[in-house]
Structure formats: C-alpha cells, structure tokens
Design a protein that fits this description.
Length: 130
C-alpha cells in the first residue's frame, strides 16, 4: 500500500466546479461498497491499494469544467513500491488474504475449466454466483 495526500485547491478554483468529494467527506462506513460484502472503499483513504483506485470525485456544472479541474488535481504518493504482477508474487509478499489453499494457484488448478465444485472444496470460504 502507498500513502497519499491530495491538493484540490487549483481544481476548486476552476469556474463551474462546485466541489470535491473524497474519503474525508464520508464516514468510514459510508466509504464502502460491494456486491456481496461491502468491503471495497469508494475513495482511497490515506493509502492506495491498487493502480486506478479512485481518490476523489470532482463535482462540476459541466463535463468540460470537470475535465479542466481534473488536470489540476495534485496527488502525492509515498514511496514507490515494487510491482506485484502474479498471484505467487502476491502470496510471497503477503499482499493477499489467503482464503484458499496454495494448491488452488498451481498451474494445473481447475480454475477456468468449469469445475466449480472441485474448486469450492479447496476454499475455506466459497460464495457461488448466479
């Protein structure tokens, strides 16, 4: 995870910009969403967990004003972290919550082969979807 700090002053000065909403504007409970379990942050709060995570929302009277403001937002990230690009790397770096046994991530694992029942027996937690 990488620490963040945002400066929205220049964006707020753009004509047509009404405001900026970020994690500081929501209670911790209201800053969560999810389809099955509400455990995903709406806005990154103090730390960015993945590339592309939303940091803030610019509220503007027009799309053009919002785009101008977007280009003026200053987000400062903490230290550069090494990229974790594979599941085995993530396990090794302890960056994932291990809900399933390691054999699920082996090359010959039954993922993507339509073997839902077989995969579900490897997991300590399994939620089927429709």
């Amino acid at each position: 995870m990488n620490h963040i700090a945002g400066n929205f002053n220049r964006a707020l000065a753009v004509p047509g910009v009404v405001g900026v909403v970020d994690a500081d504007d929501l209670t911790p409970e209201r800053n969560l969403f999810g389809i099955i379990r509400q455990d995903e942050p709406v806005f990154a709060s103090r730390e960015v967990e993945y590339n592309g995570q939303i940091v803030a929302c610019i509220v503007s009277k027009s799309l053009e004003a919002g785009r101008r403001a977007r280009d003026l937002v200053e987000i400062q990230y903490g230290e550069d972290l090494p990229a974790i690009l594979t599941i085995p790397q993530a396990i090794e770096e302890a960056e994932v919550i291990e809900r399933c046994q390691h054999k699920l991530f082996q090359e010959d694992a039954p993922l993507g082969n339509g073997k839902v029942q077989e995969v579900s027996t490897l997991c300590s937690q399994f939620t089927p979807t429709i």
